[in-house]
C-alpha cells in the first residue's frame, strides 16, 4: 500500500521568499513521485515528476523537488515566490502494484503569497 | 492539441435526482480515471478504465455511483439518487499509460456538483 502525507494544509510566504512544501511518502516498491498544481477553478497540471535517475528534479515555473529515499521525502521548493504561484499543490505517489498506474494523492497544500 | 474536457462545468441538482457527468479524454489516451475532490480533501480515486479491459471500480463509494466508457473514449459517471454528501468537484484524467506508473495524468477542469 502507498500513502502520501503533506505537512501543512495552508502555507503563507511573502513575495520573493523561499517556498517549501513538504511531502513524505510510503511505498512498498520504488515509487514514482509527482507534484501537481491546481489553480482556482481548474484541473490539476503536472509541475514535475521523479521516475529514475537524478534525484533533483526541475519542473515548470522555477519549481524543483529532491527525492530523498532515506527520508522518504519529496519536498517542493522555489527560491523566490511570485504572486502567480498562489494555488493548491498536490504531491502524489504512483506504482503498478494494482496492475495499472495507481496514483495516491496527498490532501494538498494551499500556498498563499503575500505581497 | 485538445486537452481533457468535462461537461457540464457546474451542476446544481436536488437531492434524490440522478446526474450524469461526461469526460472526453485526450485522443489516443487509453487510460481514464475519475476522482472526487471534496472541500478540504485530497483527490479520492473513484474508477479506472484501461482500453477495453474491465474497469477497476474499487473506489466507487456506493452502488449509487456507476461509470461507463464507450468505444474506449468518452466516459460518463452517473450518480443516482444524489445525496448532499455527493457535492464535490468530480475530476477526470487520462494518460497514455504505455510507460506504466511513470505516466503523467492529464486532468480536465472538473465538474462542480452541488446537491441541494
Taking the alpha carbons of the first and last residues of chain B, their distance comes to 37 Å
Helical amount among residues of chain B, as a percent range? under 10%
The value of Rg of chain B in angstroms is: 14 Å
The percentage of residues in β strands of chain B lies in: over 45%
Tell me the Rg of chain A in angstroms: 14 Å
The description of the largest β-sheet of chain A is: 6 strands, mixed
Secondary-structure-based class of chain A equals mainly beta
| Element string of chain B (H = helix, E = strand) | EEEEEEEEEE
Quickly count the helices of chain B.
Answer: 0
Mean pLDDT of chain B: 91
- Helical/strand content category of chain B: mainly beta
How many strands of chain A? 11
Distance between the termini of chain A: 41 Å
Largest β sheet strand count, sense and barrel closure of chain B: 6 strands, mixed
Low-confidence stretches of chain B: none
Shape, per Cα inertia axes of chain A: globular
Concise description?
Chain A has about 120 residues and is mainly beta.
Structure description:
The complex is a heterodimer of chains A (115) and B (116). Chain A is mainly beta. Chain A is 0% helix and 57% strand. Chain A contains no helices and eleven strands. In chain A, the strands form two sheets. In chain A, strands 2, 4, 5, 9, 10 and 11 form a six-stranded mixed beta sheet that branches. In chain A, strands 1-3-8-7-6 form a five-stranded antiparallel beta sheet, with no helix packed on it. In chain A, a hairpin with a 5-residue loop joins strand 6 (56-58) and strand 7. The radius of gyration of chain A is 14 Å and the shape is globular. Chain A starts with a strand and ends with a strand. Chain B is an all-beta fold and 116 residues long. Chain B is globular and about 40 Å long. In chain B, strands 2, 4, 5, 8, 9 and 10 form a six-stranded mixed beta sheet that branches. A four-stranded antiparallel beta sheet of chain B has the order 1-3-7-6, with no helix packed on it. Helices cover 0% and strands 46% of the residues of chain B. Chains A and B meet through strand 4, strand 5, strand 9 and strand 10 of A and strand 4, strand 5 and strand 8 of B.
